[in-house]
């Protein structure tokens, strides 16, 4: 039951083949069994989840129709507001802070019948591509505890990969959905900026941060997006509906189209361990009838302008609490904040100018192509300290690792990481599908085409005891 699809779970609950409470209890047992080693959850709301499941069962017994995600277990990254639960964002500076109301995406999930099991771990304010924080143990990768699950939505991706939940909500300000999706062998969709409203607490990432689904299949990710997408007045940057059912698109992926394959998107090349399964996936897509053209690198190194925007946003969150930051925060977070405080208004506007240049480059590319395929990451999941689970990679190594993801936070385009295989050592590898801005349906369609051509990547091996 814990590895069933969200679609199958919801259908079974709606039809009365299984009770929502049985699904919830199975998920809670799986969490009890595995999360002591995985550390995916920050806060488990077992009582709240069981109460929500019992309410669904009572509603069905009384003849009420149930929603699209009836009884589906869902986890939520801990920087998204879930009423009554901690919203600590991985930081000791926010220890004990609880959300007063549900974020719009959470309210929509509840209205669709999803059962919120709790919140998942993340690094401090999402500043790392890994999943350790001052608040507790590092999240482990379900495929290999000796490697990072990625971040910053690492707890969400690990929970989905390990069968603790069917779906999870993540945020992505510089790859934070797609990085852990690639590391954990699941699907992670960063929708067009504004496709999913981001409120009431945006954590300063208004220009960069996207909310989106993490799932074990493109179809399940699309089903979740059907529920959470759409304009909300509380987020002035949110978009109106695209006017289609994303799950319908995923069920009928395109059989023709013009795809660009960029094995090297910018300044740095990907490792052979990444390129081998990605190239095989691209060949499978081409064999299925889609037209694929290999393109040369089309972007400069965008690390510095993205980092300026990101670090300034981090600094804006804590600028009045620097004594507390220096006492309670990770050294890496302190360094980001200090860089953000040191950046001038001119530096910020210069970074925005580079952002416009990146948008122009991508806009020109899409005159000839429907979507772009790239390796999600340039290296496999990075190793961690066996005892602590902390990744001590040099900063330059870590930045090179995810140079294919943050350009699309600068441009606001939709991008999906789809698992396409593993390295010889058994570590998951993701292929990124990037669509034109506003065209989430196009992006999901080609992601589903990749998944269909390659086949599903199986669940991770059993967690070591």
Quick structural summary:
Helix content is 40%, strand content 13%.
Task: Walk me through the structure.
With 465 residues, the chain is of the alpha/beta class. The chain has one domain (6-454): Amidase signature (AS) domain (Amidase signature (AS) enzymes, Alpha-Beta Complex), CATH 3.90.1300.10. Helix content is 40%, strand content 13%. It is built from 16 helices and eleven strands. Strands 1-3-2-4-6-5-10-11-9-7-8 form an eleven-stranded mixed sheet. The longest helix has 21 residues, at 345-365. The radius of gyration is 20 Å and the shape is globular. The model has no long low-confidence stretch (mean pLDDT 95).
Number of domains: 1
| CATH-scheme architecture | Alpha-Beta Complex
What's the count of strands? 11
Given helix and strand content, the structural type is alpha/beta
Assigned CATH class: Alpha Beta
Question: Which terms summarize this structure?
Answer:
16 helices; Amidase signature (AS) enzymes; alpha/beta; globular; 465 residues; eleven-stranded mixed β-sheet
